[in-house]
Amino acid sequence: MEFFIQQIVAGLTNGAIYACVALGLVMIYVSTDHINFAQGEMAMFATFLAWAMIDAGVPYWVAFGLTIMVAFFGGLFIQRVILKPLENAPVLALVVCFIALLSIFNAIAGMIWSFTIKQFPSPFPSRDLFGNGLVSAQQLGVVAVTLVMLGLLTVFFRYTTLGLAMRAAAQNASSARLMGVRVSWMLALGWGLASGIGAIAGMLVAPIVFLDPNMMAGILVYGFAGALVGGIANPLGAVAGGFIVGVLENIVGSYVIGNELKLSFALVMVIGVLLLKPAGLFGRVIVRRV
Amino acid sequence: MARSWATKPHIGLWAIGFWVVLAALPLIGFVSDSPSFDYYLFMGQSMLIYAIAVLGLNLLIGFNGQISLGHSAFFAVGAYAAAILMVHASVPYWLAIPLAGIVCFGAGFLFGFPALKLEGHYLALATFTLAIAVPQLLKHKSIAGWTGGVGGVLLDKPDPPSFLPLSVDQFLYYVCLIVAMALFWIVFNLLRGRSGRAMMAIRDHAMAAGTMGIDTALYKTMTFGVSAAITGMAGALSAITVAYVAPDSFTLQLSISFLVGLVVGGIASLPGCLIGGAFIVLVQNSSQSISDWMKDAFSLRYDVPAWAIYGTLLLLLMFFLPNGLAGGIAAIRGLLSRVTQKT
Amino acid sequence: MTALLQVKGLSAWYGQSRALFDLDLSIEQGGVTALLGANGAGKTTSLRAICNMIRRTGTTTMDGTDISRRTTEDIVRLGVAHVPEGRGTFVALTVEENLRLAFHIRRDRKAAERDMEKVFAYFPRLNERIHQQAGTLSGGEQQMLAVARALMLAPRLMLLDEPSFGLAPLIVQEIFRILRRINEDEKVSMLIVEQNAALALELADHVYLLETGKVVMSGPSDMVKNDETLRKAYLGY
C-alpha cells in the first residue's frame, strides 16, 4: 500500500513537471496555433544558463528570475526574427523550423557544456514533510509552483483583455487585425511566455533527473501527452493532463508493463487521445460551419 | 514546386545518363589502386540508401501532403526485419529486401489509419512520438531473442555471385543501385498515373478531391504504407551494407536527417531525393572538417556539432531556398531558358 | 463638407495581377456611400486596399491623416472599422468575447461598457446568445455580430463588405434597417460594398460604380435610382 502511495506521489511530482511543459506547449498553441517541438530543448538551454549563473556564484533565486527573463526575451526574439517571416508558410515549413531549432539548441548546449551530467540545486529542502517517507518538501514544492503558474495563466487568458487578444490573434489573425490587435506582437508575447514557463519547468526538473542536454527529450513527449490528454487549447486541461499522465505512467510502469516501455506508453497515449478525443478531456470541440 | 517533370511522357536523357554514370562509378575500382576506394564505395552505398529513404518520405510529404517525423521507425523496422530474416531464418539477402518492404508496408498502412484523423501539427506530433518511442521499444527484453536487445544483431555481408568479378563492396553498391533504380522507376510511374494524380490532388485540396470521388482515406493510408515500405527497404539495405543493426542507430536524429535530406534536395522532386541522400552522407562525413573550419574562421572555443550545422542549414533553407537545391536548379534552368529565348 | 476618407490613385495587386486601376473615391462625413458593381469588379479589393490588407499604391487619407503606409491594425485604431467578407467571426470565442475584444484598443472602459449595452440594444438576438460559441450562430446572427464588433471599436467610418451575402431577405432587411439607425444615431459614416444594388441604393446617399477595377460612374444615389437607362445599363434592373 505504501509503495502504491509512493508511486502516486512520485507520479504527481513527475506529473507536475509534465504539466509545466504542457503549459508551455498550450501557451504556444493558444497564442500561435502551432506546436513547438523545440519547447523541451529551449527549456533545457535556459536551465543550463541558470546553472552557469549559479556556478559563477549568483544566488539561486536571482538566477531563477534572471533566467526567466532571458528566456522570455529569447522566446520573443525567436518569434520575431525566425518565425514571423514564415507566418504564411505551409505547416511543413514551420515544422521543419521547429525541428531545426530543436537541433540547434541541443547541439549548442552540448557544445558549450558537454554531455556529462551536472548537478542542479533545488530551492526546496529535500527533507521529509510528514515524517513517513511519503512526501518530501521537494515534491510538494514542485507541485505548488506548477499550480501557481496554472492559476496565473488561467486568470490571464480567461479574464484579461490582453489574454483575449492573444487568443483571438492565434485563432484568426486577419480578423484580429481588423479589431486593432497587433497580431505579430501577440504571437511574440506568446512565445516569450512559453519560453519563460519552459525555463521554470527545466529548473524544476533538473534537480531530479540531473542536467544534461538530452534531459528534456523524453519529458517533452510526456508533456505532449499531458497537453493532449487535458486539451491542448486549455491551460487547466493541460495541467490536469500532465498530472494524469504522470500518475498513469508511474502506475502502469510499476505494475503493468515495466519501466522500459514507458515511452511506448506515451506513444500509445498520444495516439489514443488524438484518435478518440482530440480536444482532450477538458477541451471543447470547435464547430466550424463550412 | 518542381512538378513539370511529372507530366513529361518519358524520362529525360539527363536522367538516363545520370543513372548510367552511377552504374559506371564502381568500375573505376578496376583501374584505381586507391586504398580508400572501398570506403568511397561504402559512401556510395550509403548515399543511395539515404536517397531511397528520402524517396519514401518524399512520397508521403511532397506528393501526398502528409507529415512524418517518424520515418526512422520504418527504417528501423525494415532493417530489423531483414536482419532477423537473414540471421534467424536464413533468408537470402535478395529476398529479405522485398520481404522487409512488405512488413513495412503493413506497419505503414496500419499507422496510416490513425493518421487519417490527424493533420499538420498533430500528425507531426504523433510521428515525433513514434520516433522517440521506437529505440526504447527495440531494446525491450521480451523481443531480445530476435532483436538482440541493446547489443543488436550482427550480420555477414553477402558474397557476390561467383560469375561476377566484383569485390564485396562493388557488388553491394550494385545491389543498392538496382534497388534504387527499381524504386525510383516505380515511384515515377506511380506519380505519372491516376494514383499519382489522386495523391497530389489530395495534397493540394483534400476536400475538393473527396468531392470528385477520390477515396481520400484509401489513398492516404496506401501512401503511408508505400512510403513506409520504401524507407523500410532502405533500412533493409542498410542492415546488409553496414552488417549491423542496433536500437540506437534509429533515433529521432535519423528522422531529422531524412527531413534535412528532403528539404535540401527539394520537396516533391525526385532528383532532389538523390541530392538529399548525397547531402546527408557528405555532411555526416565532413562534420569534423566543417567544425574545424568554423573554429578557425570564427575563432570559436568549441567544436561545432553537426546538429547545429544541420539546424542552421534547415532554417536558412526555409528562408532562402524553400524548394531545395532541385528547386534552385530548376529556377536557374528556367532563368536560362528565358534568357536564351529573348536573345 | 470635408471628406472623411479621401482615396486618390488607388491601385492594388494580387500577386502579379492588377485588380484596381487608379481609383479615386471620396467618402463624406456622416453619409452612406455604396460601392456597386458586378462580381470581380474590384469592390472587395477596394476595401482591402483601403485597409492595407493587400499590396497597393496611391494615397489614402483619413480625416487629413495619411494612412497609405500604416498597418491594418493601426488604421483600425484610427477609426476605420472593416466588417469583412465572410463575417470574420472568431468561431471559437463566445459572442461576449468577440465583442470584448474591442476593449483591447478602447482607452475609456466606461464608454466601452456603455457601447456594449448599446450594441445589445441594436441586436437583442446577440444578447440572447451572449455565452454561446460564436461558430454556432446562424449566418444572419454572425453578420449582426460582425457589425456589432465593428461598432464596439467606436469607429468614425465603417466599411461593410457584402453584408447581405448568403442571408435570407427578411434578415437582410432587418440588418439594413439597423445599419440606417447606426448611421443616423451614432453618426458613423459608412462605405458599403454590395452586389444587391437595389438594397444598397435604398440606404446610400452616394454611389460609386466599379467595373473591372475602375470607377465608371459616380453620383448621388437618387440620380441613379431615378435614371432608368443608367440602372439598366449598369445594374441590370
Protein described:
Chain A is 74% helix and 0% strand. Chain A has 290 residues and is an all-alpha fold. Chain A has a single domain, classed as ABC transporter involved in vitamin B12 uptake, BtuC. The termini of chain A are far apart. In chain A, 56% of the residues are buried. Chain B has one domain. Helix content of chain B is 73%, strand content 1%. Chain B has 15 helices and two strands. Chain B has a two-stranded antiparallel sheet. In chain B, helix 3 runs parallel beside helix 8 (168-192), helix 5 runs antiparallel to helix 11 (216-242) and helix 8 packs across helix 9 (194-204). Chain B is globular. Chain C has ten helices and ten strands. In chain C, the strands form two sheets. A six-stranded mixed β-sheet of chain C has the order 6-7-8-3-9-10, sandwiched between helices. Chain C is globular and about 50 Å long. The two termini of chain C are 32 Å apart. Chains in contact: A-B, A-C.
Question: Distance between termini of chain A?
Answer: 54 Å
Q: In angstroms, what is the radius of gyration of chain B?
A: 20 Å
Number of domains of chain A: 1
H/E element order of chain B:
HHHHHHHEHHHHEHHHH
Summarize the structure.
Chain A contains eleven helices and no strands.
Features of the shown structure:
heterotrimer; A: 290 residues; mainly alpha; ABC transporter involved in vitamin B12 uptake, BtuC; 11 helices; globular; C: 237 residues; alpha/beta; Rossmann fold; 6-stranded mixed sheet; 4-stranded antiparallel sheet; 10 strands; 38% helix
